[in-house]
Design brief:
Oligomer: single chain
Mean pLDDT: 79
Radius of gyration: 19 Å
Number of helices: 20
Length: 342
């Protein structure tokens, strides 16, 4: 007898990230002594396992990035990435002055922090973007994500927080945050077979580091992310969606690719823990930020497809000539496979 567990999880928006995260949080809330009781490998997964798994995840993710992107893909992907990260930097500057590193501790905005805002805005859900572009866009717009993949991981969030004038990070921590991704990129471009081998592991890693992250969350705090999480998710779509729409129009698109990029990646929920590990000043903000970002993943996974479909219905589908769509350069550029929860 077969039980469609994977299919059921994938029906949940960002399911491969949010469902294991919730299961881990249930253990942390109702059975907090589990890792100490079992010890060994089980205990290691519960206590600190997320960072090790994430290191492997970013090596495999980097391997999926092809250096041989066409000029259009570099222009489109680079423009969308700059706008996405630039928006996070502006918000980091504003909220960094108001909040500093610590989260708000009381009131309806309890749990909100500069870290949560920046991490939620920085990283696009790549699997969602490529799926939407496959339906409403052009092949080369799908390939633009090969450039946007550089958003992945904590590096740009650390840079953004530094630019915002908050606690600085020592250069080894910054290099260490991006080194696994760069190592993967080098390996994947040196050996195509190694790229295929490593990139297949990316979706497999997501539920494991999500579970490990969840074991550090207490569900008694989750209620605080209710309306706040929804509000932050809506803010991600609106605040990043408008400038992304405009820059997509300016770089030769019809705006649909920009709207499709207005989301939060599932692995963005891992960023607060890594940032806090690199700088203890963010330790208090990391837990609530993880919960809020996980809510953003779900909310944007629902809203972004709806908004993309609506915009595509207004501006029409941007179809390129058949010959251009099937050129070797365009085909090679669309190399990263959609990643669940990204």
């Amino acid at each position: 007898m077969q039980i469609p567990i994977k299919r059921a999880i994938e029906k949940v928006p960002g399911g491969m990230m949010t469902v294991p995260l919730l299961i881990g949080a249930l253990f942390a809330t109702f059975a907090p002594t589990t890792p100490k009781f079992f010890g060994s490998f089980t205990g290691a997964l519960f206590s600190g396992g997320a960072l090790s798994i994430l290191a492997v995840f970013y090596v495999c993710m980097g391997a999926s990035i092809d250096f041989k992107a066409t000029p259009y893909i570099v222009k489109k992907g680079g423009a969308l990435m700059i706008v996405k990260v630039g928006t996070a930097i502006i918000l980091g500057l504003i909220f960094g002055r108001l909040l500093g590193e610590a989260p708000i501790t009381a009131g309806i905005f309890a749990g909100v922090s500069t870290l949560a805002i920046v991490a939620a805005m920085n990283d696009t859900n790549g699997g969602l973007y490529m799926a939407l572009m496959g339906q409403y866009g052009r092949p080369r717009d799908v390939g633009a994500y090969s450039i946007m993949t550089l958003e992945s991981g904590p590096f740009l969030t650390m840079v953004t927080l530094g630019v915002a004038g908050l606690s600085s990070f020592q250069w080894p921590a910054l290099v260490g945050a991006i080194l696994p991704l760069v190592a993967g990129m080098i390996l994947g471009n040196l050996d195509r077979e190694l790229r295929d081998f490593l990139s297949k592991a990316v979706p497999v890693m997501i539920p494991f580091f999500a579970f490990a992250l969840g074991t550090g969350l207490n569900l008694t705090q989750v209620w605080q992310a209710g309306l706040l999480g929804v509000g932050m998710g809506v803010a991600v779509v609106i605040v990043t969606g408008i400038p992304l729409f405009l820059v997509d129009r300016l770089t030769g698109g019809n705006g649909v690719a920009g709207v499709a990029a207005a989301s939060t990646a599932g692995n963005a929920a891992a960023v607060p823990a890594i940032v806090a590990a690199a700088n203890p000043a963010y330790a208090d903000a990391a837990g609530p930020a993880t919960i809020l970002i996980a809510a953003c993943v779900v909310v944007t996974a629902i809203l972004t497809p709806i908004l993309t479909s609506w915009v595509a219905g207004i501006v029409g589908r941007d179809v390129e000539p058949e010959a251009e769509a099937t050129t070797p350069a365009a085909s090679a550029a669309v190399s990263p496979a959609p990643v669940a929860g990204r």
